[in-house]
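Hello everyone,

My group is preparing for a crystallization screen and wants a predicted model to guide construct design. The compound we'll soak is zinc ion. Before spending weeks at the bench, it would help to have a computed complex in hand. I've included the protein sequence and the ligand's SMILES below. Output in structure-token form would be ideal because that's what our pipeline reads.
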Amino acid sequence: MPIGVILGFASALLTALVTEIYAHRCLAHHAFRVRPAVASVLDTYFRVVVGTDPESWAAVHRLHHRYSDTPLDPHSPRLRRPATVLLGSAYLFAKAKLRVPADRPKARWVLPLRGVVVFVYLVAFGPLQVLIMFVVHLVGYLGIMGMVNTVGHLYGSKPHPHAAGYDAAWLAIPLLGHGYHNSHHAHPAAARTGRLDPIWPILRAGAAVGLIDLGSRAAPLDTHATCCGAFTSLVHP
Ligand SMILES: [Zn+2]
Ligand SMILES: [Zn+2]
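Reply:
Good plan to model first. Here are the tokens for the complex, ready for your pipeline.
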């Protein structure tokens, strides 16, 4: 198997994990806190690889929770064609990002750092493998995001009838805990989405070594806010 495929798959998985753990559960839902050093690493990774700041991602996601499956939902497959939500995550995010305030000014260091990363990969693996990696990364990462937004709102059971989305436990592992999407909409601040949530052991391990504080901030969440709080308020002082 070409090394570009392996690197692209690994990169997509790592980026999906950072998105789910940091931008989604930590920043958007305040389900736990992370140490400032951890936050800095994840913030830098997210900005360089995903290409936006994690606060904007979190703010757009809160729009989804606030307006789930209504015309103001940024990516409801019930009001748009499911194929558009499945394949158009980047486009729908860019449109929704215009509706939320910019939390921080654009960082000037992102582009140069991204250039350095690409240069290192080009030197190490050559242009063809880097191109393969890029394509596999995009398909994998946006595929996971699109699947969550599409399948999670169309198929499965509804243990919480008042909340949006559906549960399909068999999808919990490939969708990083979002097989319990209805449960997530019902309890968005929960650090664990369900029994088969693959993120939960990672959070437990992070808590065991002192990188994550699972306990003290687990409860309150204002799902009606359109933007998450200040970055520094979400990490240990
Ligand atoms: Zn949802
Ligand atoms: Zn959420």
